[in-house]
Amino acid sequence: MKRRDFLKTGSLAVTAAAAGALPLSKVYSKTQNSFSLEIVTDKEVKAIKLIEEFIHVQGLNSDTIKYSEYRLGKAESGDIVLFRNSKLVNYKEGTDKISEGLKTIASELELPGIIDDPVRLRFYTDNDGEPAKHFLVFLNDVLINKIEASTDNLNLKINGTMGKLVLNISGRKARVAQSSCNHKNCVNSGSISLANENIVCIPNNIVIIAE
Amino acid sequence: MVTFFCIIISALHSQETLFEFTAGKYLLGTKIDITAVSCSIDSMKKAMYFSFKEIERIQGVMSSQIDSSEISTINRNAGINSVKVSYETYSIIERSIAYSKKYPCFDITIGPISELWGFSSNHPVTKIPDQNVIDSLLLLVGYEKIILTPSDTSVYLSLKGMKLDVGGIAKGYAVDRAVIEMKKHGMNNFFINAGGDIYVCGTKTKNVKWSIGIKHPRKENELFAIIELPGDGAIGTSGDYERFTIINGKRYHHIFDVKTGLPVMFSQGATAFATTAEEAVILSKYLFIMGGNKYISEQIDLPAIIITSNGDVVYDKKLEASHSLKLVK
Question: Are the beta carbons of A124 and A35 closer than 8 angstroms?
Fold first, then answer.
């Protein structure tokens, strides 16, 4: 397995609800220093180093910062998006230290721009227990759909490796309504509604993550 | 001057940003997640890459779902030929036999029974298998029917139709090997979760230990207990909610009584603690099969949490202090 292939096929960066025992989510509490920084780029190695440095220099660090990365299924607009304490930082027009820092990073990564083989990197403070804003759908570890949690009465049919899976989104919750798999663990695992919760259908290679 | 320099370095380190990263892969029939905390994301990714590579290698050697694996080759030659295998595979079979002698309810020759019930192929049966068929397959079960030759590390299954199923112990072993890779690549704070069998190393932050929630076997998305490991170590869980089928309103799961060929019905779930993941997996299966009543009546001297078949929780009270065990009301 080459490292590139490992990244393509394996890097779903969320905690999984496994059978039996699982890492505990703590009760969500907004902190003064909460942030979420997303980059869509094809220069992930360089981007990681730049953002690690940026977070350290700007004093954005919290206790521990969570990091996730996954490939996107198609060409996307690459850019940097920073939310600080739930407010979007408009770095392109800002003149503060943080905006200037992000402009430097964007320039180094040649963003914004269209990225043919994009990877989405996300650095964020612990938001376990926070109500989900989106539900992300992955097939074979590639993001194929991002659905607003506010969407109501949606039945999304997904063609998995083994057959069809129907994802129902309603009342800010997501659940698997139907699945072609034999065990139906994904159906039996119930609904998700809080950040970082997930549902996995292994036979269909489908993962749904609340974000 | 030297002391001052060290203090500066120490102060700088204490301000380093820590990142938490999780990567997951489907291997050995389950989702395996590795979560680590480090000041370098690239270092974590590298360590996880090598850890998953090691787990993948072990899958290739030991999975009975892979035709070219050593275990599959042994199974194909049951009653026909002795098969020379790697020392690694030989050792795991040897250890499995030792575990069976210590914990008689554990037996890797249960393969024909698992296959009959459909759990090894992920196509569980929809009606209870015929008892005569079960009885005929039970004649193929028994670790004493495995013939080991240490001089050339060969393995012979003495009866045609015998099948080894090392899935559980191989999963624990693979986690232990992944732990070695993580540490070899500089990681000191991480945990590996292989479908509920977990190894914990270090802490989540400087002051916060890794917390493990144990899922309630009957209530979706609910925990019934929370624990913290006091140091590096492993937790194994076995449950009737992992792989099961419902026939005529009754649950039949994948953990069998080696004497009857039927699923054991004393427990809904069992959690065990050990220094290695391999041992934790074995102990959790043993405790699940023994059940809560025997755990108490036979005073089994193992730290454990068992949910009995009627939902009562039986546990070693010492875990409240040693592992900060809290039952969720």
Answer: yes
